[in-house]
Amino acid sequence: MFIDWLTLLLVNMMVALVLHGLFVGFWLDKDPKKIIPGFLLTGAIALIAGFRMVFTWPLPGPYNIIYGELSVLFGALLFIAGLAVNFGWSLTTIGIYSLFAGAVAILMGVRIWVSGMTSEPLVAGLGFVATGGAAVLTFPVLVWPKELKWIRWVALVAALGSALIWIIVGFPAYWAHIDAFGKWAPPTMAPAPAK
To answer: pTM here?
Structure first.
């Protein structure tokens, strides 16, 4: 039986998307420093869990690429965005990174749906596509924040819509993981082999 922590990644992504929506919709102009702790926290969790998945491959096959690598991409994006806001750095290159990370998420969402991966391929694929769309929309929001104010509301809706999809996926996954891993014990607790 493989052990995974996708539930942690899902809940972390939900929180990150809600924070992202608040940032682009309300805090970017008025009080951007409000986002620093949230971006740093969600970014660190996504980076640590994603890197562990990328380096150890605890899941079957391509799920390690889809969940692990995208967790690293979005974790890096969130963490550096928190640092950039804290130190007053330009957010333009973060917008460029977000554009490409979002494109990868959209590609993976389509691939999940087309390949029938996960127990709910349509919902999971839609979650990745919507999250990727929110990331792609971040590019114009950060590069042209004054000229394209209307797109901030579109990005806000995309981020909150994505968070809602991951809530629909993540909360039942937590419930199911309790049953699925209820009898699991680490190898150190396994009974000694009979002689």
So the answer is: 0.89
